[in-house]
Amino acid sequence: MPIKVFIKRHLKEGHVEKAVSMLEEFRNMAKKEKGYISGETLINHYDPRSITVVSTWRTIEDWVRWQSSEKRAANEEKIEAMLEVPTKYEIYDVGSPPKGTGSGAAVLQTDEVS
Fold first, then answer.
1. Strand order in the sheet with 88-94
2. pLDDT per residue as tens digits for the range 64-94
3. Exposure check for the chain: N or C terminus, fewer CB within 10 A?
4. Sign of the C-alpha dihedral, residues 90, 74, 26, 56?
């Protein structure tokens, strides 16, 4: 089942341009990974230091493999130095919740996954 990963970051003053450039590089790396479907960077209109990256993966296992890879860890370390607070991750299932989950499962409906 596809998932969407929301990666929320709040940058220190003066780091937006550099961080956005780095995030584009990271996305290009992720595009080559098994299970990657798509990604986008959202910059808060009222606070450009607040950036959310949304990526879509075929399975949670594909995301976990990428998240725990050495390549990604090295890049995350660079971004973390620019942040005011630690990165926050939220993972959502696309479509129906997985079987066996309670009524509190988060669900995101979308038409973009083929």
1. 36-43, 50-57, 3-10, 88-94, 107-108
2. 999 999 989 888 989 999 999 999 999 999 9
3. C
4. negative
Residue 52 reports pLDDT greater than 70: yes
How far is the C-alpha of 6 from the C-alpha of 15, rounded, in Å?
20
The whole-number average pLDDT for the span 19-33 is 93
Which residues neighbour 102 within 8 Å (Cβ) at sequence distance 6 or greater?
Answer: none
Place of tokens 């940058």: 11
Domains annotated for the chain, with CATH where assigned, are 3-108 (3.30.70.100)
Asked if 112 and 56 count as a contact pair (C-beta separation under 8 A), the reply is yes
Can you count the helices (H) and strands (E) in the chain? 3, 5
Q: How far is CA 101 from CA 6, 16, 59, 78, in A?
A: 20, 38, 17, 36
